[in-house]
Amino acid sequence: MNTKVVRAIDAYLDNKGLKETTPVDVGPYLEKRGILKDSSSRPGKPLRDLLRKGQIPNAYQNGNRWVIRRSNFKSQLKGSKTEVEEQTPVSTFKKVTLPIDVESG
Fold first, then answer.
1. Residue 84 has what pLDDT?
2. Is 26 in contact with 77 (CB distance < 8 Å)?
3. According to the model, what pLDDT value does residue 7 have?
4. pLDDT, average across residues 47-70
5. If we measure between CA atoms, which residue out of 53, 85, 50 comes closest to residue 71?
6. Residues β-bridged to residue 20
7. What whole-number distance in Å separates Cα of residue 13 and Cα of residue 55?
8. Average pLDDT over residues 61-77
9. CA pair distance 96, 47, nearest whole angstrom
10. 20 to 30 A from 61, CA-CA: which of 19, 25, 79, 84?
11. Between the CA atoms of 18, 21, 27 and 32, what dihedral angle is there, to the nearest 10 degrees?
């Protein structure tokens, strides 16, 4: 995982008040901050390469388009260093069997 890129994407989303972004939209932001150089001929390509390698959490493809949501990282300042704690969302799905009334109908 590329923590520096993930944190920058989170900052971008927070600053813009967005829930999600795309590599093309956030690419110039990352380049401007010296975090990830974007491609002038194929905007967003360097970030898409990281996404394909699974280095950016909370990203998915909608058709051919990558969508990146805010990560679940929580920064905690302890002493003079910053620790990053990954919080995995917990999904609780239960299999439910519904009774079927076979006599009506």
1. 39
2. no
3. 93
4. 94
5. 85
6. 69
7. 18
8. 79
9. 40
10. 84
11. 10
